[in-house]
Design a protein that fits this description.
alpha+beta, binds zinc ion
């Protein structure tokens, strides 16, 4: 993906977060506490809530972004560079 295409596809932080949510849901979100795979998406808080035990999983949880304070857009840019 070239940089112009990238900017068109991910114009802002919110777009990146939404894209990241779709990717993670495709891969499957698994509850850390009870291993349940069924979650509700809490749009206002940007968290998944486990349908079994109500444990909440953040967008960054369980990924390399977890301990980072960098924005999603920065990560996406970096990943785009690595994969190209
Ligand atoms: Zn759970």
């Amino acid at each position: 993906m070239n940089i112009i295409k990238f900017v068109e596809e991910f114009p802002d932080e919110a777009g990146c977060r939404e894209h990241w949510r779709v990717i993670r849901e495709k891969e499957g979100v698994v509850c850390k506490r009870c291993k349940c795979e069924k979650h509700w998406w809490l749009k206002n808080r940007e968290l998944w809530q486990c349908s079994q035990c109500n444990f909440r999983t953040s967008l960054r949880s369980g990924t390399m972004m977890e301990s980072s304070k960098l924005g999603f857009r920065v990560w996406f840019t970096a990943m785009g560079r690595f994969s190209s």
